[in-house]
Write a structure and sequence with these properties.
Distance between the termini: 31 Å
Pfam families: Glyoxalase
Helix content: 10-25%
GO molecular function: dioxygenase activity
Largest sheet: 4 strands, mixed
Number of strands: 10
Protein name: Glyoxalase/Bleomycin resistance protein/Dihydroxybiphenyl dioxygenase
Keywords: Dioxygenase, Oxidoreductase
CATH architecture of the largest domain: Roll
Order of helices and strands: HEHEEEEEEHEEE
CATH topology of the largest domain: 2,3-Dihydroxybiphenyl 1,2-Dioxygenase, domain 1
Radius of gyration: 18 Å
Strand order of the largest sheet: 1-4-3-2
CATH superfamily of the largest domain: 2,3-Dihydroxybiphenyl 1,2-Dioxygenase, domain 1
Shape: globular
Length: 154
């Protein structure tokens, strides 16, 4: 591809969707709704649940229900299969980070997670002043709550 064509491409602005796979969708929905206080999902069915996080959507999929291609009604397209092929597949340990403003917010979340019995897996203090706390969700994914100062852009 030529440089000219590449320079005309629209800039990618942000992550639109983050998909995590759940062994037991109701347990994961409760964790994100209640423990992380995201509120009720805007979309919920036996296959998936969706939470709005600003410009990003967090999707939780029931493991084993997304591995086959899925045709959209009225010939509107095809969603390719994704995720592990069954509920007994090994943990994926997908990493994701949720943003808060300051280090004190990270500390408050660490206290909340610990009080709720959530495994705190680690902590980090970053050179630019940011802080992070890492935790395990019910499906073994590695979550992070991070403050400003972990990246040049945040």
């Amino acid at each position: 591809m030529s440089l000219l064509l590449t320079s005309l491409l629209p800039k990618i602005s942000h992550v639109l969707e983050l998909c995590l796979y759940a062994r037991h969708l109701p347990t994961s929905v409760a964790f994100y709704s209640e423990t992380l206080r995201l509120g009720a999902p805007y979309l919920s069915n036996p296959r998936m649940a969706g939470f709005s996080l600003g410009h990003t959507t967090l999707l939780l999929f029931q493991r084993g229900l997304t591995s086959a291609d899925s045709a959209l009604p009225s010939s509107r397209g095809l969603i390719p299969g994704h995720g592990p092929p069954g509920v007994d597949a090994p943990q994926l340990r997908t990493h994701f980070a949720l943003a808060v403003d300051g280090a004190e917010d990270v500390e408050a979340w660490e206290r909340e997670l610990s009080a709720r019995g959530v495994e705190v897996m680690g902590r980090a203090e970053w050179p630019a002043g940011g802080r992070s706390v890492y935790f395990a969700d019910p499906d073994g994914h590695v979550g992070e709550i991070a403050s400003r100062g972990i990246w040049p852009h945040y």
